[in-house]
Amino acid sequence: MSIDALTVLASSVGGGESQLVTNLAILVLSGFVGYAVISKVPNTLHTPLMSGTNAIHGIVVLGGLVLLATGSDIGTGTTIILFIALVFGAINVVGGFVVTDRMLEMFKQKPTPKADKEGDA
After folding, report:
1. Is 95:54 a contact under the CB 8 Å cutoff?
2. Three-state DSSP class for residue 120
3. Predicted TM-score (pTM) of this structure
């Protein structure tokens, strides 16, 4: 489903009364879809999948930075919440890469120690 289809669906659910109802309906629907998708992932694929999605969260961080950089009048409270969201988003992105790196380290072959030659004296 595209975002436009979700907006139309959420508008019909909320009766088009307010943007808040539409946004809440989209949030709830996306939560159900996300839970349904993630719950079907086997445990062996969970870590790489989540690390990848954490990296995708970088798009959200970039969007927040653009919003802060435009200097639009969004208010002090919104700016504070946006800054906190950017900090948590950056932590999420870095954490995703750290988890992926640690996971890949488990699969690297460890160097074997050189055996002493019995013939050398």
Report:
1. yes
2. coil
3. 0.53
